[in-house]
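Could you join me in thinking about how sequence relates to backbone shape in a protein? We need material for that, and I hope you will provide a protein of your own picking. Once you have written the record down, we can walk along the chain together:

…
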Amino acid sequence: MPPSTFAPAPTQSNATPSVQSVFSSFRRSSLQAPAFAHALEQLPASFRARLAHVVPGVNNGFSMGELAMPSRTILAPQHFSKEQAPLITAWKDKALEDGFAVGPFSGREIEDSVGPFACVPLTVVHTPATETKAEKNRVCFNASWPTNVESGSIGIRSINDELKEEEWECEWLLINEVKLLLSQARSTACAMGFDLADAYQQLPNAPWQRRRFV
């Protein structure tokens, strides 16, 4: 049986780490590099070449490509309303508890320890309630800020604008199509599913790029 790509999440310490360690140390996640290496060995050569960055990313942190580091500190404007502030606070508290975020640190502490930094604004995406589902409010990073119009005066492009474009095939299926696909699968077929938030929070980012993710 192949090894699991996930292990029990690391236990979080109650002690707040130093600013220097937060911006320079690898953040250990529950992802298991040997399991990913084993899985990649089963793929065709073309896929292995395209996904060669996965194991180093698990071991050392995933790079977002050639991101420009700020020459001065850039504070993002608030991207949520006063009424949504409790949602942001609850998200922050849970992120700290889960080890997905660390701090809080003052801007001066960060600048004195690692230099200028750029903020990624938080925003709330609201999904209205339906007859079968309650309303949902998701806290998201707005990696598209600043816009192209704003970037000139702010002095830095958005993370999304700096990312290298790549074409990846993605097929969306309706629930009935998924049910049909699973009903016709062989007994040896394997399937898995993870919420995007779970996957996103498991990926450790590269320490040398963290000044763009404050």
Residues 129 and 135 are 4 Å apart (CA to CA). The chain is about 35% helix and 5% strand. The radius of gyration is 20 Å.
